[in-house]
Amino acid sequence: MSSNPYSHYYRNAFHFDQEHRTAGSVSLFKTHQSEPGHFLIPSVAGPSIQVNLAPRKGQGELDFGARRFVAKIAKNLFVVSPGDRTCEYRIPTDLHLLIVSFVGDPFLEVLGPGQDLGFMHSVAMYDPVVVRLVQYLWDRSGEGAPLLELNSLEMALVSYVAATSRQAKPVERQAYGGLAPWQKRLVCERMADHAQDASLKELAAIANLSPEHFCRAFKQSTGVSPHQWLIRHRIEKACGLLVDTKLPISDLAAAVGYDDPSYFARLFRRTIGVSPSVWRRTNQ
What we know:
Elements lengths: L4 H9 L3 E7 L2 E8 L3 E5 L6 E5 L5 E6 L4 E6 L3 E5 L5 E5 L3 E7 L4 H6 L13 E2 L1 H15 L4 H21 L5 E2 L6 H11 L8 H7 L4 H12 L3 H19 L4 H7 L5 H12 L3 H8 L1
Antiparallel strand pairs: 1-2, 2-9, 3-8, 4-7, 4-9, 5-6, 5-8, 6-11, 7-10
Helix pairs in contact: 3-4, 6-7, 8-11, 9-10
């Protein structure tokens, strides 16, 4: 069974009921978030299709790195997450996800150079055909279907989603009242600079807003306060450094902006669910 960053994250960070299978060149994950709440799925290199199998309905907020949007969490919901983007869910009900995680980007082969899935990276869609294809791929992989059949199912799924991207319309609404795209980009770029912390007054000035208005607009756009966003950004960077380098924890903490390794370790455990050393050991 091939490894995938999703499997490590689900196993270590949350108490998901989860299963993992492979189907040709893709990895499949079935997870069940049994209670309402806020959770993150860290970025992986390739795109993924995530479908919800839970029948219960409710209105939630999602953000895959493009913008935050409001969607009805219901059966037959599916989303397409681009590679290298964190998936954020804020849900009022349980969520039963079936995820197809791709190696590379098969959509480029179908859509052609310079094309992408457009708005589908920032909306939720509702299509029983996509859900049935993903469910069938899951079922056949568990039944030991031939590789040729699994690859054909993968291509059918990719081709259908790509065709849907050209004609489907979003059914959710954007969360209004937040920062303009240019404001969010400049502020987040400044916050991501670990060389020197930015004050709230400085961030508000970048956005040309008062500190009070800036805090409200930032949370409206991202779902979290500037301080919480900064913690999440630093912890995500730390996850990558823990896997890709052999830096001691103290040096790694300093590299992402924390002079106190103990404080960094507490934040890491609170955010991810395990200590930095456990994360490194299970993901290398």
